[in-house]
Design a protein that fits this description.
By secondary structure, this protein is mainly β. The protein contains four helices and 34 strands. It has one domain (36-524): Pectate Lyase C-like (3 Solenoid). It has a 28-stranded mixed sheet that branches. The protein has a six-stranded parallel sheet with strand order 5-8-11-14-17-20. The radius of gyration is 27 Å and the shape is elongated.
Length: 525
């Protein structure tokens, strides 16, 4: 830089300093600091006593009006009712920052935003049909994020049943985060404690990333409903009272929309620890005498109007909870699913549950759904409840199709009786789909009914106590292939109980001889 250029630069810099000195304080006016909108500069106290809703929403409005920015929550406890998200903003929760759901006052005229009208709300539960009655919500937005490492505590939210505020009461909130018809969304690094009916409910959200969340909650961890291109990774969910990670496809948008192009990877789900004890690292096991569902699983369904397509689940850990559940009962197509590298311990119902049913909770005139092209491989399961085994069941006239099960070690408690082996589970075609829906099952490993084209290979069934039920029961099955099957050998107990089965093959599965059967009405092997 020449001497003349240097003099000119210094002169301009001096003018700039003088202007800055004479201007009103930008920070005092609540203007951003480098695109950061600090909620405290908009009046939030973070003292855990003052309701900070207005200040938080003011900061969000300011960021949106500026074309976007980051709304920052410094360390503190921000007591709030409904926080309304906007496009092109990020909420950033500093370490030590907590957004706390305020308690709804008795007989409240104020509180959380009212649930918006939804003319299709009779096709799914109340919680799935409304979004505005939440701690944090957004609708029709784009380019938004909620980032950590702080916490969201749904202290004042309703869980939707039992003791606590009535979820339909004016001013009551029931979700920590609710998103509807949004795209380009990132949720990362924060935690949710006691999330209400849903820790996260996302309906019609596309290009969606959920990463490194810890959710320790009193109902569903996260529901991914009618969403497309979703990545769930590195998450921990403790949800003893309901499901952990739950893709769904409800009719809440007013039309059937598939949940598709989804990956769920590197996650831990459980239903066995006291509320808050996973989040604080103490991992206090719930007393076995306390009767709660201990659900905590990964499930597709129950809402299933739009269907599930092109989904992978991999490298996940289940403990003290339900197993995998794939359900279509409301007329949807569930297809092209790959599940691999799953470890399970202390499973409370079925390690694997596939159900095609005809509940048909949706507009009239829809056909019964389809469940097809499912591959499940590399599964290790220990100490699973033996009353139910694994269940793959369609309904009369509607088959589950094209299922491949490979490389599994499934250890059950055992103890089934000959009386159990004689049971004939009811069809319950329109029943609510749960592994418990049929009662005690007649098998000690797999019950397979109304299925076409199923391959089972390199699968071992083990039992802690002797079990007098056959490991495999097949009923109305076509094109069944079994290869290298290993099961407990109990005197007088067959490996296979076949009923109305066609094109059945088993080989290299001692002591069962290699066998081909074109059709049998009833046979034991």
């Amino acid at each position: 830089m020449s001497a003349s250029e240097r003099r000119k630069f210094l002169k301009l810099a001096g003018v700039g300093v003088a202007l800055a000195a004479s201007a009103p304080s930008a920070q005092a006016a609540g203007a951003p600091d480098g695109g950061i909108f600090d909620v405290r500069k908009f009046g939030a106290t973070g003292d855990g006593k003052t309701i900070d809703t207005a200040a938080i929403n003011k900061a969000i409005e300011a960021a949106a009006s500026a074309g976007g920015g980051t709304v920052r929550f410094p360390a503190g406890s921000y007591l709030s009712f409904s926080i309304r998200l906007k496009s092109n903003i990020a909420l950033y929760l500093d370490r030590g920052a907590t957004i706390t759901a305020a308690e709804t006052p008795a007989g409240a005229s104020t509180g959380y935003d009212l649930p918006e009208p939804n003319q299709w709300d009779h096709y799914q539960d109340f919680g799935h049909s409304h979004f505005h009655n939440s701690l944090i919500w957004g609708e029709g937005l784009e380019n938004l994020s909620i980032l950590g490492p702080g916490k969201i505590w749904g202290k004042g939210l309703s869980k939707g049943y039992g003791p606590g505020p009535n979820v339909k009461q004016a001013g009551v909130g029931n979700k920590s985060i609710a998103l509807k018809n949004c795209h380009n969304v990132v949720l990362r690094d924060f935690s949710i404690l006691q999330g209400g009916w849903f820790g996260i409910l996302a309906t019609g959200v596309d290009n969606f990333t959920i990463d490194n969340l810890t959710i320790d909650t009193n109902r569903d961890g996260m529901d991914i409903d009618c969403c497309r291109n979703v990545r769930v990774s590195n998450c921990t969910v403790n949800s003893p009272w309901d499901d952990g990670i739950c893709p769904k496809s409800s009719f809440a948008l007013g039309y059937p929309r598939a949940t598709e192009m989804v990956t769920i990877a590197n996650c831990f789900v459980t239903g066995g620890y006291e509320l808050g004890s996973v989040l604080d690292g103490t991992y206090k096991v719930i007393d076995p005498a306390v009767r709660i569902p201990r659900t905590g699983r990964i499930k597709m369904g129950t809402e299933s109007n739009g269907g599930f397509k092109n989904i992978t689940i991999s490298d996940c850990v289940f403990e003290k909870c339900g197993g995998l559940a794939l359900e279509t009962v409301d007329g949807a197509i569930l297809e092209d699913i790959s599940i691999t590298n799953i470890t399970m311990r202390d499973i409370t119902n079925s390690p694997i549950f596939l159900r095609l049913g005809s509940r048909m909770r949706g507009p009239e005139g829809r056909p019964i759904g389809v469940l097809r092209r499912v591959i499940i491989s590399n599964i290790v399961c220990s100490n699973s409840h033996s009353r139910f085994g694994c269940i793959i069941s369609g309904i009369p006239g509607h088959y589950i199709e094209d299922v491949k099960l490979t490389d599994m070690y499934l250890q059950f408690e055992g103890g089934g009786t000959r009386e159990d082996a004689a049971l004939q589970p009811p069809e319950k075609e329109s029943g609510y789909p749960e592994p418990t829906m049929f009662g005690t099952m007649p098998d000690s490993g797999f019950f397979i009914r109304h299925v076409k084209n199923i391959d089972v290979g390199n699968v071992e069934i083990a039992a802690e106590k002797p079990d007098l039920r056959p490991p495999f029961v097949l009923d109305n099955v076509q094109d069944a292939e079994f290869f290298r099957i290993k099961t407990p050998q109990t005197s007088g107990v067959p490996t296979f109980a076949l009923n109305n089965t066609s094109r059945f093959n088993v080989y290299r599965s001692k002591p069962v001889a290699d066998t081909h059967l074109d059709h049998v009405d009833e046979k034991r092997l």
